[in-house]
């Protein structure tokens, strides 16, 4: 935290992303995402199965069962990523994410990075890394900074 007891904006939004991650239904990793524009939260998301679909915490993890390593074969999962769910929630309620910043407990994967690029997200703050080198390459080429904090 910064010199005073008041958190910086980055610390504030990242702590909210950490709280959002507590809703995750993933067995392997709890991830939270917060989309922010003009210092206002416009959408949140956490990783888990789509609405109305059984959650991994209830029926087990397909990726664990098949021995899929982290950062690979993203399509072999019942869940959607936190970043995807934040974008979907914004779309569902008609909220533009253009020029927003993303705060995420983990660095986005390459699939999420492609979505964030197309959604015109301007910067991504993350706490922990992720094993997907293509993500870094895509975001760098798009000119969208990845900023690790916390």
Q: How would you describe this protein?
A:
The chain is α/β, with parallel strands linked by helices. It contains 6 helices and 5 strands. The chain has a 5-stranded mixed beta sheet, with helices on both faces. Helix 5 packs parallel to helix 6. The longest helix is centred in the first third of the chain and has 13 residues. It is globular, with a radius of gyration of 15 Å. The mean pLDDT is 93.
- Tally of strands: 5
Question: Cα distance, first to last residue?
Answer: 8 Å
Order of helices and strands: HEEHHHEHEHE
State the helical fraction: 25-40%
Instruction: Report the β-strand fraction as a percent range.
Output: 15-25%
Characterize the largest beta sheet: strand count, sense, and whether it forms a barrel: 5 strands, mixed
Over all CA atoms, what is the radius of gyration? 15 Å
Mean pLDDT value:
93
Read across the widest sheet, the strand sequence of neighbours is 2-1-3-4-5
The helix/strand class is alpha/beta
Spatial shape: globular
Number of helices: 6
